[in-house]
Amino acid sequence: MNKILLILLIIFIGCKPNQNGNNINEKAIYNDHVITPKKIIINDNLERHLFDYSISDEIGLNKMHAPVGWTEPIIKAKFELRGIVLSGVLGLEFEDGIKKIPSSNGFLIPNNTKVRIFNAGSEELILIEVLRPGYQKKFVKFFEGFDN
Q1: Residue 134 pLDDT more than 50?
Q2: CB atoms within 10 A of CB 123
Q3: Residue 35: which residues within 8 A CB-CB, separation 6 or more?
Q4: DSSP assignment string, the chain
């Protein structure tokens, strides 16, 4: 798992912001090779915390903490989402069933895939997410069910 985290860190560090600053979001603070995340509180059915380390629109990097019982709505995103479950069990519900990803395993959700992401375990879910391209509201569509 340490090798996977190191690879993600190397990929993220390689995505430097433009020298003119045009590509930097107001998400994280990038100063002298140190990235200080922006803490984001999101209220789906329960409150979760996201630490956003993203510094450009090209790639997003987040650490998420979600309590037992947390779920987000069914979405279809125009970005690829992959990551590593650091603790807990990640649940991914697709039209054809549910996948459970235990701690120390990675996951991949291809872009334009309808999915519901949730905490499928009995403890806090903590994971690292990498989004390509980075998160933008206009890239996400919400659904009431899998049939529409």
Answers
A1: yes
A2: 12
A3: 28, 29, 53, 55
A4: -HHHHHHHHHHHHHSPPPTTSTT--SSSEEETTEEEPEEEEEESSSEEEEEE---SSS-EEEEEEE-TT-B--EEEESSEEEEEEEESEEEEEETTEEEEEETT-EEEE-TT-EEEEEE-SSS-EEEEEEEES---GGGEEEESSTT-
Assess whether pLDDT exceeds 60 at residue 44: yes
Q: Which two tokens stand for residue 128?
A: 């690292």
CA-CA distance, 11 to 70, in Å (whole number)? 29
The pTM for the full model equals: 0.80
- CB neighbour list of residue 96: distance below 8 Å, 6 or more residues apart: none
Class of domain 2-143: mainly beta
Q: pLDDT category, 30, cuts 50, 70, 90?
A: confident
pLDDT mean across residues, the chain: 86
Model pLDDT, residue 10: 46
